[in-house]
Amino acid sequence: MSEKLYEVLKRASLFLDEYNRESKVAEILLQHHLRISRSEFFMKMQDPVPSSVIERFEKDLQLHAETGIPVQHLTGNEMFYGRKFQVNNHVLIPRPETEELVLHIIELVKKKYTENPITIVDIGTGSGVIAITLALELPQATVYATDISSEALSIAKNNADRLKANVHFLQGDFAQPLIDENIQADIIVSNPPYIAESEKAAMDDTVKNFDPALALFADEEGLAAYRRIIQQAPKVLKRQAQIAFEIGYKQSADIQEIIMQRFPTAEVRCLKDINGKDRIVSARIF
Ligand code: GLN
């Protein structure tokens, strides 16, 4: 007699509990192995699960429990702003906080630029979530995205193709390829690496052992990428422009200062995330 879905799920949740891992992973993984939608999954709780599926599911479950490999690396995808993006170990797994950065840009564009054409550049695009979402949500925007990693760019391009987003991808160091191409942007957006190496020891194993170090860590107490982008920014921005960064929650004052040093007349503000932590620094440049 094969087991019912809810029984398999219950056993998996208990198993994850023993390893102090989130039980929600069991749902995501089992749904992935059954190849059904989330709503179907919850309707099929009483249905029997084929033993071949249970076997594959439990193998992945054990791998996650023992090694901390993120469930997104096992399923190969993560949702961002309501869309499914492909991910692997060459790109940062998109985080919900970054959706707020995207929302901030969308609101700003709708208010300040209404329907006018604009150019947006996403620096360090990783899986491409920011650039692709902006291209899809803001049809008047021409969107460029850079990354130093060719492996990341190939994932980003794949995501753009699958989601039918028109993004121009360029490889290179932060804004350098945009400077080389003489691109003048209205908006720079970036979620650069911002964690100091000294914080590594305290980090969760699913993050520090699996998200690429290039996407997580930066020198100068985690501020090096912001300094580099701000140093390059005058060559990329139009006279009136906006810069919006995702930041580490303790970095707001430092990053505001980095911006003010280069753009003394900028209007800089900090926005908080859903958890009430400083998460975005956004600057109007004149
Ligand atoms: N821009 C990508 C994201 O927000 C990648 C960021 C990164 O690798 N630091 O998910």
Describe the secondary-structure layout.
Blueprint: H1 5-18, H2 24-34, H3 38-43, H4 51-67, H5 71-75, E1 77-80, E2 83-86, H6 96-112, E3 118-123, H7 129-137, E4 141-147, H8 150-163, E5 167-171, H9 176-180, E6 185-190, H10 205-208, H11 213-216, H12 219-222, H13 224-232, E7 237-246, H14 252-262, E8 267-272, E9 278-285
Parallel strand pairs: 3-4, 3-6, 4-5, 6-7
Antiparallel strand pairs: 1-2, 7-9, 8-9
Helix pairs in contact: 1-2, 1-4, 2-4, 6-7, 13-14
The protein binds glutamine.
Stretches with pLDDT under 50, minimum 5 residues: none
Summed over residues and divided by their number, the pLDDT gives a mean of 96
- Provide the CATH superfamily of the largest domain: Vaccinia Virus protein VP39
The helix/strand class is: alpha/beta
CATH fold-type name of the largest domain = Rossmann fold
Radius of gyration: 21 Å
> How many strand segments?
9
Shape: elongated
Number of helices: 14
Bound compounds: glutamine
Could you say how many structural domains there are in total?
A: 2
Characterize the main sheet: 7 strands, mixed
Order of strands side by side in the largest beta sheet? 5-4-3-6-7-9-8
Could you tell me how far the N terminus lies from the C terminus, measured between alpha carbons in angstroms?
A: 71 Å
CATH architecture of the largest domain: 3-Layer(aba) Sandwich
Helix proportion of residues, in percent? 40-55%
SSE string, helix = H, strand = E? HHHHHEEHEHEHEHEHHHHEHEE
EC number: 2.1.1.297
Organism: Oceanobacillus bengalensis
Catalytic activity: L-glutaminyl-[peptide chain release factor] + S-adenosyl-L-methionine = N(5)-methyl-L-glutaminyl-[peptide chain release factor] + S-adenosyl-L-homocysteine + H(+)
Binding site for substrate: 191-194
